[in-house]
Structure formats: structure tokens, C-alpha cells
Amino acid sequence: MSQLKSFNVSNEIMRAQKRGRQGKIRGLNPGPLLFVEHKDFVWGLIASMYLGNFLGLVLVLTTVPIFASMLGAARKQDYLGRFADRCWQRLRTFRRR
Known about the structure:
It contains four helices and no strands. By secondary structure, the chain is mainly α. It has a domain at 2-68. The longest helix has 58 residues, at 39-96. It is elongated and about 85 Å long.
């Protein structure tokens, strides 16, 4: 469904196809006759979903190294935070004595 939203297919058409209601919405009857009567629309919709999935895959595969490097930097900051926390705890226990 996210592919349909990204290509600006109206909510009424998606709801009608999802629930199987029979009614004309913008000249399209949802159902099996849609493949016969509006072949260009259906195949364009299928092609746009394939294109959206392919572009999403490319986007994810190209940004994985960036996010992985961010996780590595977060780990270093986490170690510094733990070190500072332990130092603070030792300082507090030293002051209590």
C-alpha cells in the first residue's frame, strides 16, 4: 500500500480495492474487469510498484554503511559516557569517606 500512496493514488481507490466495494470511482470499477477495461492503468500501476521497490532497495543498500558508521560512533560515545559515570561514582564514594 505504501507504493500506492507514494505515487499519489487516491485513498478512495485504495479503500475500494481493499474492501472489494463495487462502485465507480473516477471511472474505474475495482475488480477483475479492471485488467480487461483499463490495461494501461493496471500495468502502469504494477510497473510503478516494481520501480518503487527497486528504488527503495537501492536507497537502503546505499545508506547502510552510513548508518553503520553512526552506530560505531554511538558506541564510542557510550564508552565515554560509561567511563564518565564510573568516575563520577568513584568521586562520590571518595567524598563520603
